[in-house]
Specification:
88 residues; mainly alpha; Glycosyltransferase subfamily 4-like N-terminal domain-containing protein; 2 strands
């Protein structure tokens, strides 16, 4: 199944007029691992306008609800896979 999707991915990259990625790392990965020319790949970095959002008051409700009042909590909002250099 993975082989099918890798073939599909390679075909999509090859047939696309332009490829938009969200980081320089993704651009380099596609160039180096998929053989796509540099001039076909463009980076548009993630961004956010923080003035559009109100600051929230921290109440601790989530921590209490899940019994993690005194725990260190890490949040990762990204992707883990080959393009991050992981050996899967």
């Amino acid at each position: 199944m993975i082989t099918f999707f890798e073939r599909l991915e390679r075909t999509a990259y090859r047939e696309a007029d332009k490829i938009i990625v969200h980081s320089r790392g993704n651009k380099l990965f596609i160039e180096e691992n998929r053989g796509i020319p540099k001039n076909k790949i463009h980076v548009i970095n993630n961004w956010i306008d923080i003035s559009l959002y109100d600051e929230v008051t921290r109440t601790g409700k989530f921590r209490r609800e899940y019994g993690i009042d005194d725990k260190i909590v890490f949040l990762f909002g990204g992707v883990l896979g080959p393009s991050q250099g992981l050996d899967l």
